[in-house]
């Protein structure tokens, strides 16, 4: 069984109020080294069998057509999750 990750982020010109809120909180919590934050979405898609180039292409198409709002978001990464067995 394989897993594909699709990362979606707001387009650069779109305001990100959640990212701004996190950016404001980080210095108060002792993390002053970060200049800005953008918050996005991560989708994990499991497949039966190995992750192939065709599976990655289908995941990108799903990301662009279904998982994201193409007016305000970009699919920024589609990749195989090779650490899927690791504990988080």
Automatic annotation (TrEMBL):
Keywords: ATP-binding, Cytoplasm, Ligase, Nucleotide-binding, Purine biosynthesis. Belongs to the PurS family. It comes from Cellulomonas edaphi. It catalyses: N(2)-formyl-N(1)-(5-phospho-beta-D-ribosyl)glycinamide + L-glutamine + ATP + H2O = 2-formamido-N(1)-(5-O-phospho-beta-D-ribosyl)acetamidine + L-glutamate + ADP + phosphate + H(+). The keyword Cytoplasm applies. Pathway: Purine metabolism; IMP biosynthesis via de novo pathway; 5-amino-1-(5-phospho-D-ribosyl)imidazole from N(2)-formyl-N(1)-(5-phospho-D-ribosyl)glycinamide: step 1/2. Part of the phosphoribosylformylglycinamidine synthase complex involved in the purines biosynthetic pathway. Catalyzes the ATP-dependent conversion of formylglycinamide ribonucleotide (FGAR) and glutamine to yield formylglycinamidine ribonucleotide (FGAM) and glutamate. The FGAM synthase complex is composed of three subunits. PurQ produces an ammonia molecule by converting glutamine to glutamate. PurL transfers the ammonia molecule to FGAR to form FGAM in an ATP-dependent manner. It is found in: Cytoplasm. One of its GO terms (molecular function) is phosphoribosylformylglycinamidine synthase activity. Its EC number is 6.3.5.3. This is Phosphoribosylformylglycinamidine synthase subunit PurS. Part of the FGAM synthase complex composed of 1 PurL, 1 PurQ and 2 PurS subunits. Pfam families: PurS (PF02700).
């Amino acid at each position: 069984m394989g897993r594909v990750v699709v990362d979606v982020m707001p387009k650069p010109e779109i305001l990100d109020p959640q990212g701004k809120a996190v950016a404001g909180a980080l210095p108060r919590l002792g993390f002053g080294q970060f200049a800005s934050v953008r918050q996005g979405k991560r989708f994990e898609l499991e497949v039966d069998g190995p992750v192939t180039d065709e599976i990655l292409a289908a995941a990108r198409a799903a990301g662009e057509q279904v998982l994201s709002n193409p007016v305000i978001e970009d699919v920024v990464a589609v990749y195989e999750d090779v650490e899927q067995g690791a504990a988080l």
